[in-house]
Amino acid sequence: MRRKLVVGNWKMHGSLEQNQALLTQMMADLNGLRDADCAICVPHPYLAQAQQLLKGSNIGWGGQNVSPFQSGAYTGAVSARMLADFGCTYAIIGHSERRVLIHESNVTAAASFGAALQAGLTPIFCVGETLEERQAGVTEAVVGSQLIAILNTLGLDILSKAVQLRAVIAYEPVWAIGTGKTATPDQAQAVHAFIRKRIAERDPDIARRVRILYGGSVKPSNAAQLFVMPDIDGGLIGRCSLVANEFRDICLAAAESACVASQSISD
Ligand SMILES: O=C[C@H](O)COP(=O)(O)O
Question: Which residues are catalytic (predicted)?
Fold first, then answer.
């Protein structure tokens, strides 16, 4: 059975002082969490602080993007190796805010996915459609092309590395991000099942093992309904990862849904 994972994406929020208080509270709140994994992806300047505070706790940490390049004259860019230097486990790749606002392409996102794996990080590869795309009925075509970009750009060899480092996919419908409009559990499940089916066409074993997170206005009041869906393996959380008790409740919902699932298997 796939272990649930909840990842907070702080986006461009925080300060040394706020982070100290928030991470300290989260460590206290999540100290006893056993049945789910959790992590926080912080803005790059706060990686050292996250490493110092979270080391030895059961909260992992990561960055929110990596350069597709290993090093060189790329002003303002941060390499995957640099994230690894700060003990990161995770790197969010291809978030829609980067795709939409700074026109990051499928090819760039795929190359960053490869760079993250190369540095030993677990990439969290984001896919998702806009509202116009959903209304036009092309959700599967859009998500499918975002996924296939990985193979087209990096080739089939990337799959074994992705398995080894437990690469994660995050389905985030753009229309649900930061809007308060969550996809219904059935809408999200349908796209998650499509993603798993697409991966299964290449490799059924990877499809069974890969964790697919849902992101887009996840909150304590809807987390449990989403996490019990068979192909939803946790969440990528924006706004509610900036509020300790809301993030705690979402992590607890993930752990609880894992217990419900294991009970129903043994029943
Ligand atoms: O990476 C996280 C997503 O963009 C979701 O953000 P949100 O929970 O604020 O809607």
Answer: 95 (electrophile), 172 (proton acceptor)
Interface TM-score (ipTM) > 0.90: yes
d(CA 60, CA 128): 25
pLDDT in tens, 146-198: 999 998 999 888 888 898 889 999 999 999 998 988 899 999 999 999 999 99
**Cα 104 to averaged position of ligand 1 atoms, centre (Å):** 18
Per-residue b/e over 106-140, b at no fewer than 16 CB within 10 Å? bebbbbbbbbbbbbebbbbbbbbbbeebbeeeebb
Q: Which of 27, 31, 34, 69 is nearest to 49 (CA)?
A: 27
151: enclosing H helix or E strand: helix 139-154
- Locate 83 and state its tokens: 């994230």
Q: Could you tell me which CATH class the domain 4-266 is placed in?
A: alpha beta
Whether pTM > 0.90 for this model: the answer is yes
**Residue ranges of the binding site for substrate:** 9-11, 178, 217
Structure tokens at 160: 């074994």
Ligand 1 centre distance from Cα of residue 239 (Å)? 6
For ligand 1, whether the C-beta of 236 sits within 6 Å is: yes
Cα–Cα dist 149/234, whole Å: 24
Q: Report domain extents, the chain.
A: 4-266
Q: Retrieve residue 87's tokens.
A: 């003990």
Give, for ligand 1, the residue of 217, 222, 243, 251 to mutate: max count of ligand atoms closer than 8 Å to Cβ: 217
- Determine the residue of 177, 214, 218 to mutate for testing ligand 1's pocket, defined as the one with the most ligand atoms within 8 A of the Cβ atom: 177
